[in-house]
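quick one, 261 residues, struct below
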Amino acid sequence: MNLIDTWLSLPLPALWLCLAGFYSASAIILIYLSFGRLTGAWVQSFVGVVPPYFAGMVVIFGILVGFLANDVWDRSRRAAAAVRSEAANLTSLYDLLYTSGLPALPIDHTIRTYVSTVVEKEWPAMARGEAAPEAESAQDQMLEAVANLEAEPKSSPAITRVMLDTALKIRDARYERLLLSADYSESFKWMSVLLIALVGQVSVAIVHLGRARPHIAAMVIFTTGVVVVLGLIASHEFPFSSALAISPEPIAALLKIIPNG
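---
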């Protein structure tokens, strides 16, 4: 795991603190270089850079942030959709079983075991980008129990086929969930955005060399915007391992419906 992934994997307060600390430090350094006793006179010899130069940097920064935010929020949206799909198909399988008139107990047990394993063991494992072998085993047992319904005397080929398709959709939704939990950030995109934000600070500094107070005000405003925007995006980078992680509650709700026994 590289430096960017290490930073993104930090707890939320530490992530924000590192981001704010880095850009605050760079802003203070630029202010000192612009008006400090040792370097101020030399840096202020660059007075005259026109404001549109800064506007160009802002446009580039905005485009890169837009691409990055789209990737992050699309991953989060897909992860939430996978969880909802898995929960919906588990509920559908349970409902189909009870409306079919087929023996319910074996499948009841496998569905409940699968849900319990996913909530209690696989969700913590996904925070590390891993799957739980117990959930894989429970999934296989559930598929096997549904497939065995075809041998029941009262079974209908149409109903059993729908139930098997539903069980396969549960498997597909789980694989999508696991794929997204192990999908690490694109470090190159993050590095590009972080560097262009730093260049943006330099641009703010160089177009406000005339007076110290406007210089400081512009630097504070731009730096605050950078920290807030990048912090919000970074907080959603990993949909199953951050403080804003997607909850297993839609799946866990089935434990209140399926009898234990």
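The two ends are 44 Å apart (CA to CA).
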